[in-house]
Amino acid sequence: MARVGVLGGSFNPIHYGHLLLADEVVEALSLDRLLFVPAASPPHKPATQLAPAAARYEMVRLAIAGHPQFAASDLELRRPGPSYTVDTLQALAAGGDELFYVVGSETFLDLLTWREPRRIARLARLVVIPRAGSPFDAESAAAQKVLRGIGAEGGFVHDLAGSVPARGVLVVHATSLPLSASELRRRVREGRSLAFRMPPAAIEYVRAHGLYAAETA
After folding, report:
1. pLDDT at 217 over 70
2. What CATH number is associated with residue 29?
3. In this structure, is residue 210 part of a structural domain?
């Protein structure tokens, strides 16, 4: 049974912040591989701001090429309707691997608004990445409410030295680069450089396909 990380998102576009975070999660949790899963139709994001799903998937594929433990999944692109995480994890769990679902700390605090959050927590170990500049208070009322809501046993696990414990929501302090997809889209609209912010192959794809040049939001 492989240990597989799952990193979902719109990746609109993917950038070095995503890649560095993923690499550190692989190392911290001794994962066999990590799947990048671009959302075809994210339930919580306006479709008008998204590049086509196939283009975002291709940018991910280009960006991770050469990393032996990274893989891109088109699972949500092949499924019609909104891209619900619970459906994705259910499909991946059928393969028998041990799943680790990676979310930012702000996303974790919103988890109870997602479809079937308790089932998400049963299908995969949750891995929370605290956002830089906004410390994650695991003892806060908001964080504890989510823990109760998803029925997680073992609380939050911060000390991951050695083996990963069998229970609990894992907290991994990964490096957070000062990059955002919205800023990169703005730079494209303004005709500014994307160098050192995205892998060159992904930058070339953005340029070659005219992505984000006409975005209005």
Report:
1. no
2. 3.40.50.620
3. no
